[in-house]
Amino acid sequence: MTAYLIRRLIQAVVVLFGVSIIVFILLHLLPGGPARAVLGPRANKVQILAFEREYGLLKPLPVQYLVWVNQLLHGNLGFSYKQNQTVDALLGENIPRTAVLVGVATLLALALAVPLGIYQAVRRNRPDDYVLTGASFLFYSMPTFFLGIILIIVFSDLLPILPSNGPQSTQSLWLQLPNLVLPIATLCLVTLALFSRYMRSSMLENMVQDYVRTARAKGVSSRGVLFRHVLRNALIPIVTLIGLSLPGILSGALVTESLFNYPGMGLLFWTAAQNQDYPVLLGTTMVVGVAVVVGSLLADILYAVVDPRVRYA
Questions:
Q1: Cα dihedral 76/77/79/83 (nearest 10)
Q2: Which of 6, 22, 202, 302 has the smallest CB count inside 10 Å?
Q3: Do 97 and 55 reside in the same domain of the chain?
Q4: How many domains does the chain have?
């Protein structure tokens, strides 16, 4: 397993290297260059030249890239001239809030999707299965912003029982639990629909395998076959899906945070896009790239936990 992990870590480094090159190129493809993007359209040539000289933008691009990578490795993601703060300080304030939103929504979706998928597989082609399948298709196909608006209309306007905005103060998020309900529900319902469909399909696929018939022939009860044999095999695609769906969950968090004015990394990115705060945009993109690579690596490691038959060679 050690050799496998080393290979996967090398692959992760290569992917991150590619992401860093793309982010660096995007920075230099900005209209008028990075200096014009930062200083604005009213900056004159003298100001632009002084800015480029101060920040080393007159050096060859390979040299600039190496300097930039060195800054990244030391935790320096740049400086936001719009907010007069370093990008790493801004992300340090907002990433924990996004982690709470995405983490709770994903764990809640998994906790509901696994039993829901099992129930649908056992009750396949029956009225309750059709109803749950229709609901899953509805939530899966519904845009995140549209679902969030519906929840706001129903639970904040028609039934004013929940606030329509996320937590705003700097105190603990858990002290503002009512403000977390709608943002988490919006992200959870979309993710739940995706996970439950995969869980149902995986359960149905494993329930017709030869080892299931053998277990039943040996006298194992239906419940024993379902939970001792079928479930662990059916969870393998879900583990893969968690790693692959992380980018989609994070993009859904961006929309959700913007909709509910939730002060996280998604809202920071949205605000930076509106204000043309390019250092924040590129720093956030780099952090998301790292999160996706790490999530994919963790999904590979979890294979052996879910299925002991998996051997890393």
A1: -120
A2: 6
A3: no
A4: 2
- 262: containing domain: 88-306
Q: How far apart are CA 217 and CA 219, in angstroms?
A: 5
pLDDT for position 307: 62
Residues 187, 237 within the same domain:
yes
Tokens for 260? 């509910």
**Cα(306)–Cα(236) distance, integer angstroms:** 7
Residues 42 and 147 in one domain: no
Confidence of residue 170 (pLDDT cuts 50, 70, 90): low
Task: Tell which residue, 126, 258, 240, 255, has the closest CA to residue 194.
Answer: 240
Global pTM?
A: 0.78
Interacting residues of 133 by C-beta distance below 8 A, sequence separation 6+: 120, 197, 200
Model confidence at 311, pLDDT cuts 50, 70, 90, reads low
For residue 48, what is the enclosing H or E element? helix 45-54
The C-alpha atoms of residue 246 and residue 309 are separated, in whole angstroms, by 26
Does the pLDDT value for residue 312 go beyond 60?
no
Q: Is the pLDDT of residue 109 over 60?
A: yes
Percent of the chain with pLDDT over 90: 3
